[in-house]
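Here is one such tokenized protein:
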Amino acid sequence: MIFQPEFEDSALPLAEYPRPQCKRASYFPLNGTWEYAIRNTPTTQSYDGEILVPYSPETELSGVNRQLKKDEYLFYRKNFSLPEGFIQGRVFLHIGACDQVCKVFLNGALAGGHEGGYYPFSIELTEGLQTGENELLIVVRDDADSELYGRGKQKYKRGGIWYTATSGIWQSAWLESTPVNYLKNFRFYPDVNAKTLRIRYRTQGEGKLTARVADGDNTLAVGSSESGELLLDVSECKEWTTETPELYKVFFSFGEDEVESYFGLREFSVREKGGYKYFALNGKPVFHNGLLDQGYFLGGAYTPSSNRAIYEEIKAVRSLGFNMLRKHAKVESALWYYYCDILGVLVWQDMVNGGGQYPFWRIALCPFFNLRLNDKNYKLMKRNEASRKQYYAEAYALIDALFNCVSLCLWTPFNEAWGQFDALEVCEKLKKEDPTRLFDHASGWQDKGGGDVCSRHIYFRKARPKNDKKRVLALTEFGGYSRAVEGHTFSDKKFGYKTFKSAAALENAYEKLYREEVFPLVETQGLCATVYTQLTDIEDEINGLFTFDRVPKIDGEKIRALNRELYGVFEKTVSKTEVE
């Protein structure tokens, strides 16, 4: 079954149901206008005005346009009254992401809190609710220089590859009601060879869970369990691929609790042909041809103007012939991954980096002199014990949040030594948490020989990596060709790796890069993945295939033709190794 997105015609920003993998009928959106205040103290008696949630106060779309400083508190306040019949037993507050640390108060009493700015969390509000109007207060702290928490590419002083720091709520907020006993969470483990779907789950309360797999009105599989695990025969389901992204609804019943989800029958693995390792999808070699995607949006920073806009962007990527996006140093909303699932776009997901400040000599000079550092030297790598523990907490939380994403095929624990520590051990621990996906343990440099990918970032020189035949060879960043398009730049500052003044010069260089460097690497070194830098311009950085306001820089048909040729070169090379 090929899914289609549904968009809401609403005055509320990002009004669509925000969690398609775990959908209930109860939905009370909290996106929209809240009161806000920024203070130097942990309490406030007054407010500065209104903020549009879920846009960070640093953005134009929020209506605030003010940088939250590390010693300040950000207050959100909203009064709400629940509609009659909404409460079924329990009420939860869900927030897709709030950067960086927050406390939640309901009617003046502390209801809970959260640490970590990039993954979703829930807080039960049931006991504190009162009849009629309720007051919800959220107090946020954020330090974009923090050594403790993941911060991605945020900087108080932006420039080059570092971008404006954002804070507060930046993904959808909503209320949901469940029965007293309810389905808490679940993980899907599809098996392509056995044509089965294993479901592991947890419930609040005891009882029987029933799961039904459906294609429209047609039931394909059904089963029940009280043990925390059930196995379904899904032999009637078609495989999910990038060309035919088949998905199927899954309906759960647990007592009075009803939940809707979906899954895809697919397997990610590494196979060997002709002495080289290749990525495989459902056992068949596949070339991962993608773009670096950092998820910054004009006017909204981390948050898009609409969900339709991100769907159209992913659709445009697919129409250009790319089949993969590397989500770089950021996490997106659940809907972003859903759109990749339904459009057949593979996702490489970075863990969000943190740790101490990154010295220039370590992240920029060491790679050019091929200096290998000991990432167990925590002082050298700027990682104290507390930040290492927090890294694991955030990494496990991210795996849990995105585990059922069909298109997510690879995790990147570390990138370019940013906050890197114990890369081999980290990779092994995370692999145990998610054995269904592949790992690029140290993308770019400071490679420790682990994971599934021999990962190379190559700028400023010709790409000539050698295949070690132990892992999949991948250009996980390259290109970075830049051009400023008049009237479509963020500022007067311009940053890029190699700059071109005209569209024709950029197009010619882009084509030459693929024909003279990428294609030969596929033929002679078994190259199996490319991540071109990058999808869009971001603030002062102008090396996108699209400008910051999404105007294309290179003729789309030229890109499509190159991508078709790239897949052809790969298929020919793999076929040749099969014959040999």
